[in-house]
Specification:
The protein has about 375 residues and is of the alpha+beta class. It folds into two domains: about 150 residues, 2,3-Dihydroxybiphenyl 1,2-Dioxygenase, domain 1 (Roll); about 170 residues, NADH Oxidase (3-Layer(aba) Sandwich). About 30% of the residues lie in helices and about 20% in strands. It contains eleven helices and 14 strands. The strands form three sheets. The chain has an eight-stranded mixed sheet. The protein has a four-stranded antiparallel sheet with strand order 11-12-14-13. It has a two-stranded antiparallel ribbon with strand order 9-10. The radius of gyration is 24 Å and the shape is globular. The chain starts with 7 loop residues before the first strand and ends in a 27-residue tail after the last strand.
Length: about 375
């Protein structure tokens, strides 16, 4: 018998077909408090975290039909997927358990972000146990919150998970056809992404940005109609005003697919769960380039941060501006004051499928100039 408890209960994870449906039970019947929902490692599932008094519940929903959550549901139906214990000094504890004859699987004992291992159900009364270490010592903070601040990569005192960040930055794609039009988007998730966006740089610390979230069906349809009008005006331009690409240019190969997906969004935009318009105080149409750059430089970084925050939570969107051809009409529909400039429209929804991959781009070195325009390194 162990001399002391191996660790402390952190949370119980349930595999469910739908997080939204499961929340009605855990929140409505049990009184749990929703914290957040995000995409899991590898992109094959998403999970929600809820608090019930001092107890934490995790809900796992499959995104990949061949992923481990989907496989569990197919074999067992909804129910407890695993129990997680916080275990300090996990490497030593794993050796102790293996010495007791327990089968330990999926060991990640050298990953500084999350040191974990699992006790096979065959050794634990039919239940999968996740053992997760909190470093350097066990405390009262749940391990999943520890992940938000725990150093991952360290060099010279500066910490950053470069692989994860680079993957995020190179795979945040324009999502149109893969938007899930049937799954609701929780207002709390949108608000969290806006909160993150507000950490972006802002000229003169003005912080004079605004985000208009549109979920009303009639207003969504009205904005979508303005987008349609802008799209028709944009695509009806004379041939000499359309982009011209040389032979072998990857943009020429990509254009038919982009047009197809744009047409899909045009048709289905009213069905998107939420439309979000990023705005900034001030009008600079008649101002000098300096003034224009200063104003747009205070909203575009926040808009991009919003897009990234959506991406890591399993939501997709696309950066659109075509409705701005009819900006005044949009402002009238949403009662946006005259002194407010609309910058970008985001159709927001959870995305379908597992993950995205980097796009084919022109070589960056061909557009990088050192000290003098046209000079390469």
């Amino acid at each position: 018998m162990a001399e002391e408890p191996i660790g402390r209960l952190d949370h119980v994870a349930f595999a469910v077909h739908s997080i939204d449906q499961a929340r009605t039970f855990f929140e409505g019947a049990l009184g749990a408090t929703f914290r957040y929902v995000t995409q899991g490692r590898g992109g094959g599932f998403r999970y929600a975290v809820l608090d019930l008094a001092s107890f934490t519940i995790e809900l796992l929903e499959p995104l990949d039909p061949n992923g481990f959550v989907a496989t569990f549901l197919e074999r067992h139906g909804e129910g407890v997927h695993h129990i997680t214990l916080q275990v300090p000094e996990l490497v030593e504890k794993v050796a102790f358990l293996e010495g007791k004859g327990l089968r330990i699987v999926d060991k990640r004992l050298k990953d500084s972000r999350l040191i974990e291992a699992f006790i096979s159900p065959k050794s634990a009364c039919g239940v999968l146990f996740q053992l997760a270490e909190t470093c350097p010592a066990l405390d009262n903070e749940p391990y999943w919150k520890k992940l938000e601040t725990q150093p991952i990569y360290q060099e010279g005192g500066w910490t950053m998970d470069l692989a994860t960040v680079d993957h995020l930055l190179t795979t945040t794609r324009s999502v149109r056809k893969r938007l899930d039009l049937t799954r609701p988007v929780e207002p709390e998730v949108i608000e969290k992404c806006i909160e993150i966006a507000f950490q972006a740089p802002t000229g003169g610390n003005a912080q004079n940005w605004h985000f208009v979230v549109v979920t009303d069906p009639q207003k969504k349809a009205a904005i979508a109609d303005l987008y349609r009008k802008g799209f028709e005006m944009y695509t009806s331009r004379p041939p000499d005003q359309l982009p011209q690409y040389g032979e072998g240019d990857p943009r020429a190969q990509q254009m038919p697919r982009i047009i197809e997906s744009a047409m899909y969004l045009l048709k289905h935009m009213p069905e998107v769960p939420a439309l979000v318009i990023a705005c900034i105080e001030g009008r600079v149409e008649k101002e000098a380039p300096f003034a224009q750059a200063s104003v747009y430089g205070s909203i575009l970084p926040a808009a991009w941060s919003f897009m990234l925050a959506l991406r890591v939570r399993g939501l997709g969107t696309v950066w659109t501006t075509l409705h701005l051809i009819h900006e005044k009409e949009a402002a009238k529909i949403l009662r946006i004051p005259d002194h407010i400039t609309q910058a970008v429209l985001f159709p927001v929804a959870y995305f379908e499928g597992a993950d995205f991959k980097p796009a084919k781009r022109l070589p960056a070195q061909d557009f990088t100039h050192w000290n003098t325009w046209g000079q390469r390194r």
